[in-house]
Records
---
Amino acid sequence: MEDIEAIAMLQDPVRRRLYDYVAAQDHEVSRNEAAESAGIQRTLAAFHLDKLVDAGLLETDSRRLSGRTGPGAGRPAKLYRRSGAERQFSVPPRDYRTPADLLAEVAEAARLDTELQAAARREGRAARAAAPVDGLDAAKVLLSARGYEPRLDDDRDALRLANCPFHALSERHPVLVCGMNLALLEGLMEDAAGLQVRMDPRPGMCCVVVELSKNNVS
Amino acid sequence: MTGHHLAQLNVGTLKFPLDDSRADGFTSMLDPLNEVADNAPGFIWRLVEDGGTDATAIRTSLGDDVLVNLSVWESRDALWDYVYRSGHLDMLRRRAEWFEPPKAPFQVMWWIPAGHIPTVEEAVERLELLREQGPMPCAFGFRDSYQPADADSALWRPVAATART
């Protein structure tokens, strides 16, 4: 499916609600759960969820939720998660990924990490909202707006970033791009009272964690 | 995929001797990061010098100031997650503090039959091959996506690998 058609699928408010819900979860979502979240009937949710799968916006898996197998274990439930595929559409056509990739390749070969980090830090400072970030909640709003999909961790003292806005580039040039990302976030969060930004990469997540400063945690 | 593992060599030219205080940031991270590697999903083996816990004393034809790091993994993704999605990434970010900028490719990977333990000579030979001829099924980098079958079907083998089989 063309990117524009896939993106257009999200025009429908019910689909959009379902998509946003599935994307925001840290687990795969059943039809029942999705239906409940959107306040619609299960069959209607199933219809829209499968439309989103057809468009490549969601992926699906079949698994028995009970964990049992064999006859009597029940029908496997269809589970949904956000697809890893990226969709972009620009009018008129523009391609920024190719030059970004080429520039990164050259910067990496020339070992311009330090220079790139300095530029990213300046960019972060400049882009910072006028209002200071005064805690995890404010940081969450700022990071959400920049596409990081921050999630408060169980201890409620750190934000884990479920999405890397530079994903494709960071897969190809991890050291350069993750170093840049850290510096950008350091710039964005500078002067944020009681918060610190640190690299703590984990599979499938953005490489950075935003947490309460050690000297702020009792 | 079960019949093959992925071997990887990476090398770095030290700016200072390892006992120089300017290398402390690097040397102090070695033990914790090796522990992360040993416990990483898909880790199989890494080169360790006799009586040591790492490979920092091993020298090759690449030079007296060149450190080598040789390891074996279940898959490319397992290796990738360790190198770029663990505490190891933060060390890489700071690599310019301790290592000279590379003038040539500094890492190489290749598929090996499961159970084979690569020698450091074989590894260096693969790296030199990559440097001289670019990526190919028997010597490639993270950017390339050669599969074990590609290596099996390639007629050419490095000298060191052929000599032992």
---
Amino acid sequence: MNMLLDEVKQSDSIYMPIPARITAVTTLTAQEKLFTIELPHELCLNHEPGQFVQVSVFGVGEAPISITSSPSRSNGTFELCIRKVGDLTNVIHRMERGALLGIRGPFGRGFPIERFRGKDLLFVCGGLGMAPLRSLVNEVLDDRGNYGRVILLYGARQPADLLFQDELAQWQARDDVEVHLTVDCPDEGWNRCVGVITRLFPEVEVDARNTVAVVVGPPVMYRFVLKELKKLRIPKGNIWFSFERRMKCGVGKCGHCQLNHVYTCQSGPSFNFAELEFLEEAFS
Amino acid sequence: MNFKIMPKAAFPGWVNRLRDHHRVVGPKQKHGQYVFDVIDDVADLVLHYSNSVLPPKKYLVPQKEVLLNYRLDGSHLEIATEPEPTVILGVHTCDVHALKLFDRIFSQGFTDQHYQAHRESVTLVSLECLETCSANSFCRDMGTASATDGFDLHMIDLGAAYAFSVGTEKGADLFKGFHQVFDALDSDLAVINETLQEKWGRFPYRLDFDVQEMPELLKASFNSALWDELGQKCLACGSCTQVCPTCYCFDVTDEVDLLLEEGQRVRRWDSCQIHEFAMVAGGHNFRERLAARQRHRFMRKGKYQMDAYGMVGCVGCGRCARACLAHITPIDVMNELYVRSQAEEAPALAGLMEAPL
Ligand SMILES: Cc1cc2nc3c(=O)[nH]c(=O)nc-3n(C[C@H](O)[C@H](O)[C@H](O)COP(=O)(O)OP(=O)(O)OC[C@H]3O[C@@H](n4cnc5c(N)ncnc54)[C@H](O)[C@@H]3O)c2cc1C
Ligand code: SF4
Ligand code: SF4
Ligand code: FES
């Protein structure tokens, strides 16, 4: 098997996508769909959880999308969870099984899972943050013995917006995963926490020295969650974020994703807080 | 150094010969300004010129560049074709330094083959500046008023002749089959040295501090009130980045013909000064305020490029100062930051001096 990224690098343009086929489309919520993608014969993605691909439709455009399937479950195919927000994502949402998408990547730096081994993992997730995070969660669950506690704090606007509800139910049913959920706007059946994600922190106690926190969500969430994690005294280097920035090229050239002198598409999207401390634009 | 000498009378003939196998571009006068353009008639070439409106970067990272051509039905997809061999004549040394930075940027990490192809197709003939070219330029401060590499050939105007220093084989090839170039004699070297020595007096320093201090100065100025003051003045037009030889940020879009049959993926110059530049889905803008965008621009020039690529990101050409309708100039900005930093440092330093031993 050859790696897709090598194929992209060896072509005459790093901007040349490789055609891949949609083999399944699953509706997750009113705004998000899950696309299963198959690469051409003998190509594999070989990604790290937290990495992204550049997805394109000729005639429409290209966008960075996180790989939501875990490496452990991406044998031959991989998954993208795409929210409908604009030109390209609307067109992709109208696509069906058999349609072709252009793929480049995987790009960026994923989460260093080898450094997470033996540690308790505290996942803090808001909204679409579940798309990149799910890759990491499933990677950990498929290798469960190598990690300590697994705690997930997950917030969404309303219960119907929670992504991957089947999997969420499976995780909740396990006794080795602690799931805490909250929504801003509850419906009648909701009997759990209501409010922003930070409301879930009083529910958890952690052994700070042995905990790695992984935070993925909308930009506004980060400051507030960081404050809670500092209260818990989790070491800076063990607080990981995935950063969203506008990205056009994915390969460190176009300048859009810059955060001070750092290119999010190259050095990120995952960063630990020790790396970000002196980057003033990180939490802007 | 190894120099070739070409009598000026032979120069037009040489340029005409170059045109046999290359597109030859160089500075020309247009509406009272100078622009790099194709030289069809050697008489149009102006080698004594103040800064061109746009730097020669436009031949390496074109304002609009097709990356991919395709048919929408999927029957055709190709990487856009190779650029034509081009000689760029009369490039000022500030612009040579800017292209050295581009060479790093487009090869570090992932290689950008589109840039690479342009770079390989271009033969760069630079020109020694013998006097400062505008009141806005501060190349002397930035260390770009001369160049020792980064060119294929480098010319010095000696009055009756041009001296050429040969940087690469590609440069040397431009003399192939042309007879009116001579190896420099001792007497030529004396004239060259004299010309170079005399030039420095015609380049005033315009920054109040040394370029070595620039990254530190900017670092210390991250929270300066000056950014807000600049934000109040800036019109967010992006002209400063368009004309800047070290700016290359781009947007990528798809363009489709009216029949919806053929399309192109193109990149175009973009600007960090434009409102949407750092905006993401959901409406969050990482540099919503003009002050943040102005700061990013100057930080990038004076500090970030150094951090990321080991070269300062400004070559002191002064084009942005000329282009800015709000009269924001790097000389004023940098000097003002310096003055304010000194005002902050002075009491601390005074305290240090007065402290008993
Ligand atoms: C590393 C990374 C991972 C991402 N992962 C996912 C994912 O797993 N699922 C998902 O649905 N989305 C993800 N996104 C966001 C996704 O890239 C944008 O939603 C997408 O680019 C919008 O494209 P569009 O053509 O549909 O929208 P447009 O019509 O281009 O614009 C709609 C809105 O999107 C904003 N936008 C434009 N380009 C970008 C861009 N490159 N990045 C972010 N916002 C942009 C615009 O400012 C505008 O507000 C990710 C973004 C990044 C940077
Ligand atoms: S910032 Fe201004 S002076 Fe510096 S290189 Fe760019 S255009 Fe020239
Ligand atoms: S040219 Fe002047 S007004 Fe225009 S974006 Fe640049 S600094 Fe602002
Ligand atoms: S996305 Fe273009 S530089 Fe990072």
